[in-house]
Amino acid sequence: MRLPKFEWVAPSSLKDASEILKDKGECAKLLAGGTDLLIAMKQRILKPDYLIDLKNISGLSGIYKLPDGGAKIGSLTKLIEVATSGEMKQYYPSLAKAASSVGSYQIRNLGTIGGNLCLDTKCDYYNQSSYWKGPSDKCRKGGGDRCYAFPYSKRGCYALLSGDTVAALITYNAKIRITNSEGERIIPLEEFYTGQGINHINLKPGEILSEILLPPSNGVRAFFLKYAPRNTIDFATVSIGVSLKKNPIEARIVVGGVASAPLRLKEAEELLLQRVDDDIADEVGKLGVATAKIISSVRGGVNYKREMIRLLIRDAVRCVQGF
Length: 323
Hints:
Elements: E1 7-9, H1 14-24, E2 28-31, H2 37-42, E3 50-53, E4 63-65, E5 71-74, H3 79-84, H4 86-91, H5 93-100, H6 105-110, H7 113-117, H8 165-171, E6 175-180, E7 183-188, E8 208-214, E9 220-227, E10 238-245, E11 250-256, E12 263-264, H9 266-274, H10 280-291, H11 302-321
Parallel strand pairs: 1-3, 2-3
Antiparallel strand pairs: 4-5, 5-8, 6-7, 6-8, 9-10, 10-11, 11-12
């Protein structure tokens, strides 16, 4: 399938890109790696009039050590670089593992970490080619008034967050820098997601995700697990990130792939901090699945996902305990 017609724009600065994006509004999309966007365009799911190519903007790629011992990653850094970086493997191994789980080698070689964080929510119906759907068969995400994935729902969109690196980054308490033509703001990554299938990321008109900021990893033990029907290409049915930090003491348990935003299971985190015995892993898994709000059966039945969440949390907790 061919791409629909569009105008390609290649600004040389973030300020210019932001101004163009704000001016064109919904008619424009940002182009980073293009591994998801271009497919959606070929399928006629998206038909932007303008593509704003970010590749000519300097400073958006690379992994850098910060003076405080943390790290920053440019939003256009390729996933393959994150997955194979010696620094990431040494200090943030859970993130390197998550990046290595994305798609295939070819996708990781083109896709960017910023694109993975901003990846559009996915649904078994919405992401079908427009040639497969009838002209009047529009779901809520596509501009209609029905949800075909959850037909008894009266409102809302149940498309799922699908970025594999999200859970791993939140377990490291990552923040992101968001830039526009007038300035910038820094927010925790977990606040970047709205929890809705439509407009699922917290970006104002003209804003662009420019950097990922990681705090020092000293004293942090983290582990990432992902289950997908196939080892490559597939989006996760369930992904799990778990971390333990000694000073100050903190636990993080994050579930991806089962809702329109990542889920932090704070009750399970509190339980994990209370005890360190071997039996706690099973109990944390059971409490985690009891409090996880799974919103749809996209990419697997709800009961099946619950069992996978329990098992993956149990295994991840055992791994961070055994470091």
